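Record 1 of the preview.
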Amino acid sequence: MKIHHIAIICSDYEISKKFYTEVLGLHIIREVYREERQSFKLDLAIGDHYVIELFSFPYPPERPSRPEACGLRHLAFSVENINEKREELIRKELYCEDIRIDEFTQKKFFFTQDPDHLPLEFYEM
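->
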């Protein structure tokens, strides 16, 4: 029917929480600490849509994300104005690649990354 959520394990919970809430502007639905797992779970939304579970675990192994490693390739967020979103993220001191054009849809997009180097795409709708 639809994707319910995406789960992300971060290496530094406070840095990733700040990134996803303050830099990307996702809204906190719920935050819990699970003592038995020494793990935070942060449920995040874009508008009214529940989209990301951000987890922390002690000493998670690194997962390569570039170049083209197996597994999740990237997360893509749709935006109304690609130029405005890119400038907003640059003002927040985030490195953003140049805007490109999708060869199939002719839509504009660019990539950046989260604190753990997970590639994030912003795609103009």
